[in-house]
Amino acid sequence: NIDFAKASFKDFENIAGLDPYEWAHLWKEYVAFRSRAGMFNYRQENLSGCGPEIELDILGNGHRKFVSLVSNDYLGFTQHHKVKAAAIAGIEKFGSGAGASPAIGGHYSFHQDIEDKIAKFFKRDAAIVFTTGYTANSSSLQALLKKEDLAILDMAVHTSVYEGCLLTNVKTFPHNNLEALENVLKNTSGQYRTRFVVVDGVYSQDGDLAPLDKIVKLVKSYGAYLVVDDAHGTGVVGKTGRGVIEKFDLFKEVDIITGTFSKTFAHVGGYLVASEELVNYLKFQSRQHIFSATLSPASACILQAIDLVDSEPKWMEKLWDNIEYLKTGLQSLGLDVGPTSSAIIPVKIGDVDLNARICGMLLEAGIYANQINYPAVSKKDARIRMSVMATHTHVMLNRVLNAWEDVVKKTGIVQS
Ligand code: PMP
Question: Where in this chain does the record put each Aminotransferase class I/classII large domain (predicted)?
Answer without folding.
Answer: 65-402
